[in-house]
Specification:
CATH architecture of the largest domain: 2-Layer Sandwich
Structural class: alpha/beta
CATH class of the largest domain: Alpha Beta
Strand content: 25-35%
Shape: globular
Oligomer: single chain
Order of helices and strands: EHEHHEHEHEHEHEEEEEEEEHH
Distance between the termini: 52 Å
Number of strands: 14
Number of helices: 9
Bound molecules: nicotinamide-adenine-dinucleotide
Helix content: 25-40%
Length: 329
């Protein structure tokens, strides 16, 4: 499909699906053929705004497209995606890929059989503040991640681990190149009957340890990552778009990019801490993600978050959720 205009549709045009629709309408490599939502009034209104068509069924939309974004509530991802993949359409599925590992595995297998692409909307992977860390090629030994959000009804159809924490699990798995070895977890229900606050401690095969905490019972939003490794400490504020790196160097001249260098003494010799603020290039992460999907279908790029990566993040999330349930009872 190289150089072909990809005919695209969106299924589910609620809070996030409207933005998928808007971006596809503006992408030069894609042609937005239409949208579908079970809420027909909503579908008509979003279609009007984006100069596209509201289809009356998923099947009729699928007859006109090469690929779709699936932006329905998570419990419907598997059934909708199965319908699309059976019709040999490439699918971009919002995160989490599905609500169960069995469903994710079934979709991956089906996509392989039908020769179509599954991409998953773990958008934080494209957060400019996280991308700013790339040149440092980090190999973390300890990672701390915190994600807090005020309560909203949207997303409460799944526990906080599948709604919020899964973003950080995906980031974690992309930063640590080693299999998960052990997980300990605890959590609480505060506002819903499901888990609203979760904490997990994950140890990887290479010895790296991560502590991740997510809550949807917060006054203000927080999304912070701290990365520690020998001679380096980095903080990433995904919300403010701020990345700061502290590195140990032998001599101030060793790091011309450092904004400040502060001396310290260890084991009888003087060393320096260099402080750097790598440039965070403001980009629209959703636009980049959808462009990557279209270019991946055209064979010009590879998916940043594959179906397998979405499935692997879900596997860890499900294990954390199960451990929390065991811990509560
Ligand atoms: P939403 O409730 O605002 O919108 C969902 C839309 O889907 C609604 O318009 C609803 O009418 C429609 N719908 C429901 N069932 C359908 C079906 N079977 N077929 C077609 N349409 C259907 O939800 P939202 O906040 O937009 O979330 C949608 C998905 O996006 C969820 O999976 C959520 O986890 C994910 N999400 C991801 C991020 C992110 O950061 N990547 C952020 C928000 C939401």
């Amino acid at each position: 499909m190289r150089n072909e205009l990809i005919k695209i549709g969106v299924i589910g045009v609620g809070h996030l699906g409207q933005h998928h629709t808007k971006h596809y309408a503006a992408l030069s490599d894609a042609s937005l053929m239409g949208i579908y939502d079970i809420d027909t009034d909503r579908a008509e209104s979003i279609a009007r705004k984006n100069n596209t068509k509201a289809f009356s069924s998923i099947e009729s939309l699928l007859e006109t497209v090469d690929a779709v974004s699936i932006v329905t509530p998570t419990p419907f991802h598997a059934d909708v995606a199965e319908l699309c993949i059976m019709a040999k359409k490439h699918v971009f599925i919002e995160k989490p890929i599905t609500k169960s590992l069995e469903e994710a595995d079934r979709l991956l297998l089906l996509a392989k059989e039908k020769g179509v692409l599954i991409q998953v909307g773990h958008i934080e992977r494209l957060n400019p503040a996280l991308l700013a860390l790339q040149p440092y090629n980090v190999q973390p030994k300890f990672i701390e991640i915190q994600r807090l959000a005020p309560y909203t009804a949207r997303g409460t159809d799944v526990p906080v681990v599948l709604d919020l924490m899964i973003h950080d699990i995906d980031i974690l798995l992309s930063l640590v190149n080693s299999p998960v070895k052990t997980i300990r977890a605890s959590g609480l229900s505060i506002l819903t009957d499901s888990v609203d606050i979760a904490h997990a401690r994950i140890r990887f095969g290479n010895g790296t340890v991560a502590s991740i905490m997510s809550s949807r019972v917060a006054k203000d939003k927080v999304r912070k990552i701290k990365v520690f490794q020998r001679d380096l400490y980095a903080t990433i504020d995904l919300l403010l778009g701020l990345t700061e790196v502290y590195k140990v160097i032998g001599n101030p001249d060793d790091d011309p990019d450092a904004l400040i260098t502060a001396p310290f003494e260890y084991d009888g010799s003087e060393r320096f801490i260099a402080y750097e603020k790598p440039p965070v290039v403001p980009e629209d992460a959703l636009q980049m993600e959808l462009m990557n999907f279209i270019k991946s279908i055209r064979g010009q790029e590879t998916p940043i978050v594959t179906g397998k990566a979405g499935r692997d993040a879900l596997e860890v999330a499900m294990e954390i959720q199960q451990l929390i349930i065991q811990d509560i009872h």
